């Protein structure tokens, strides 16, 4: 890929290297640019960032986030928290941990770091409290409020207050630290987001007012997502955001208008392995490298984007093969050529890799995907 100044980008250098394909390559300079850009936007608004590490799954990249102003990290699973605790002492588990196995591990880890968990049930609160009392530790709790994503979170401000009061009643073992919400349903264009985000802000204000009237305080109001990251100032009640994809970006965020191709800091270098069938070529990256996620806003656009052949469509994936429909291309790649593919959804793609390549100013370095495959 060549930039607007006619200079060869780092993806092109990786493509010309001798690394075996399919090879996932991360441009470290562009990663840092993405992180610094978000920090610069948030600072004047008094909002901090606690990025979700489910996207990169790497201690090295988590450290880059901390170096560029992140107040802590977000994870989904306890195993991820245990790994990320090696580089960060302030972690939020943004996923209901309700079974005894997870709660026990959380309670032990809470001895070493500041650890919080998002919860939307009395069952979950009590499970954490029991484990923490047994371990002699304290776990911070954020009450999960549904703001429209309809995945987790209590349905009303009144129910959030009930859970907040329940945390206080449990006493030893758990500590009420604030409110948690996820605006994951918001994929409308940037210019249409303000009224949508205002409704969420109004819901949060109503909730916080109820808490205040009951003598409770939410020190932390944690929200955010990559699609809404640069409109975060419209949710005035939040104190921090938890975007994940913003560190890399992907075709989901490109097609939705939240970034450009030049903001995508990860690509999959692939090799053309067959052109035997008219109108298509086959690359060595299938669903085991890319997942089968369709694009959120353009589901008929295929399974990614080929930088060198923008008219091509990644039309079909099997486990080891990716089919490119090249009938509309002005020129087509030949067997043995390498192409650069930007995936639709980068988060699960990283989870499929045991190791990736980090492009630095000194060349390519192997990078372990530290929390790859962790589901507990």
Number of helices: 11
How many angstroms separate the termini? 39 Å
What composes the largest sheet?
Answer: 9 strands, mixed
State the low-pLDDT regions, or none. Answer: 1-8
Oligomer: single chain
| CATH domain class name of the largest domain | Alpha Beta
Structure description:
The protein is an alpha/beta fold and 376 residues long. Helix content is 30%, strand content 22%. It contains eleven helices and 17 strands. Helix 8 (193-213) links the parallel strand 7 and strand 8. Helix 7 packs across helix 8. The radius of gyration is 22 Å and the shape is elongated. The model is unreliable at 1-8 (pLDDT under 50).
Search tags:
376 residues, disordered N terminus, 11 helices, TIM Barrel, Lyase, Ornithine Decarboxylase, Chain A, domain 1, eight-stranded parallel β-sheet, 30% helix, 2 domains, 17 strands, 22% strand, alpha/beta
Provide the fold topology.
Elements: H1 10-15, E1 23-27, H2 28-42, E2 48-49, H3 59-67, E3 73-75, H4 78-84, E4 90-93, H5 100-109, E5 114-119, H6 122-135, E6 139-144, H7 157-170, E7 174-180, H8 193-213, E8 220-223, E9 240-241, H9 251-255, E10 266-274, E11 280-283, H10 287-290, E12 304-306, E13 313-317, E14 322-325, E15 338-343, H11 346-351, E16 355-360, E17 363-368
Parallel strand pairs: 1-16, 2-9, 3-4, 4-5, 5-6, 6-7, 7-8, 8-9
Antiparallel strand pairs: 1-10, 10-11, 10-15, 11-14, 12-15, 13-14, 16-17
Helix pairs in contact: 5-6, 6-7, 7-8
């Amino acid at each position: 890929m060549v930039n607007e100044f006619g200079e060869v980008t780092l993806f092109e250098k990786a493509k010309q290297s001798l690394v075996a394909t399919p090879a996932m390559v991360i441009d470290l300079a562009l990663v840092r640019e993405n992180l610094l850009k978000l920090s610069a936007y948030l600072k004047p608004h008094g909002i901090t960032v606690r990025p979700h590490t489910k996207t990169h799954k790497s201690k090295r990249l988590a450290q880059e986030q901390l170096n560029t102003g992140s107040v802590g990290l977000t994870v989904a699973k306890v195993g991820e928290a245990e790994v990320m605790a090696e580089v960060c002492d302030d972690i939020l588990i943004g996923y209901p941990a309700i079974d005894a196995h997870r709660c026990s591990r959380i309670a032990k880890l809470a001895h070493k770091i500041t650890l919080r968990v998002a919860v939307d049930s009395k069952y979950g609160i009590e499970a954490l409290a029991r484990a923490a009392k047994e371990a002699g530790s304290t776990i911070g709790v954020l009450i999960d409020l549904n703001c429209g994503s309809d995945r987790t979170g209590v349905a009303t401000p009144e129910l959030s207050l009930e859970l907040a009061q329940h945390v206080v009643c449990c006493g030893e073992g758990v500590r009420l630290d604030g409110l948690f919400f996820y605006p994951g349903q918001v994929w409308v264009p940037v210019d249409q987001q303000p009224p949508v985000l205002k409704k969420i802000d109004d819901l949060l204000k109503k909730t916080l007012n109820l808490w205040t009237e009951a003598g409770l305080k939410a020190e932390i109001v944690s929200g955010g997502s990559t699609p809404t990251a640069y409109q975060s100032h419209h949710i005035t009640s939040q104190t921090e955001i938890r975007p994940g994809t913003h560190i890399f970006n992907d075709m989901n965020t490109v097609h939705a208008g939240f970034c450009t191709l030049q903001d995508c800091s990860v690509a999959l270098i692939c090799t053309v392995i067959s052109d035997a069938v008219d109108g298509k070529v086959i690359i060595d990256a299938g669903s085991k490298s890319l997942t089968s996620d369709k694009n959120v806003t353009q589901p008929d656009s295929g399974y990614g984007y080929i930088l060198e052949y923008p008219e091509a469509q990644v039309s079909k994936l099997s486990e080891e093969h990716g089919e490119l429909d090249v009938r509309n291309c002005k020129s087509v790649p030949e067997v043995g050529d390498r192409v650069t593919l930007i995936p639709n959804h980068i988060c699960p793609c990283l989870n499929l890799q045991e190791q990736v390549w980090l492009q630095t100013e000194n060349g390519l370095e192997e990078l372990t995907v530290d929390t790859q495959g962790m589901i507990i």
